[in-house]
Design brief:
7 helices, globular
Length: 187
């Protein structure tokens, strides 16, 4: 029997309601996955558990389980907001606690949101090096959303939709071929 393809979406926003969440949900949809078929992890839910942890062994069970899900993913869709030209410290700290051996060769699609279009290079200057360190296979197309691209939890910029479509097309060779009949039945 074929193993299911494990997609994990990691929302690196420290807030429950965020443009990052909207961007990631739209990317999942563009990949052809139903939101219920992916495993979603939100940084804001882990903050109380990882903030003071220096070692993986310091984490409570709920955080350990989240790390297990990240480490067992076939594809990680990772997004985070940009603050002061960088990624959130707790987002980076989360990856300080990830088992490095589980990230080698892992497929990763990157996304970010920021308060200025000046932050578009965070994907290339902060996120790519982080995942290169882990020897992950990072998709060459990232998705960045600026302050006017997502309004009232809706993507309003057609150029952003085009970028999402480009990222989804670039990711398609990494994804298992979906049976159109089964996809329609699941819908």
């Amino acid at each position: 029997m074929k193993q299911p393809f494990n997609v994990v979406v990691l929302n690196g926003s420290p807030q429950a309601s965020s443009r990052t969440r909207v961007l990631l949900a739209t990317i999942v949809e563009s990949l052809g996955w139903d939101a219920s078929s992916v495993d979603s992890i939100a940084l804001h839910e882990l903050v109380p558990h990882i903030g003071g942890a220096l070692l993986r062994d310091d984490l409570p069970l709920v955080a350990q389980e989240a790390f297990d899900r990240i480490e067992s993913a076939d594809l990680l869709l990772v997004g985070c907001p940009v603050y002061r030209a960088g990624i959130p410290g707790l987002f980076k700290h989360l990856f300080d606690l990830v088992d490095m051996s589980t990230m080698k060769g892992k497929r990763v699609l990157l996304a970010a949101t920021g308060g200025s279009d000046r932050h578009t290079l965070v994907i290339d200057h902060h996120l790519r090096p982080l995942f290169a360190f882990f020897q992950a296979l990072v998709l060459p197309v990232g998705v960045y959303a600026g302050p006017t691209d997502i309004i009232s939890e809706e993507i309003v910029n057609p150029a952003l939709r085009d970028q999402i479509a480009l990222a989804a097309a670039a990711a398609s060779p990494w994804l298992p071929q979906r049976d159109p009949v089964m996809s329609e039945v699941a819908a």
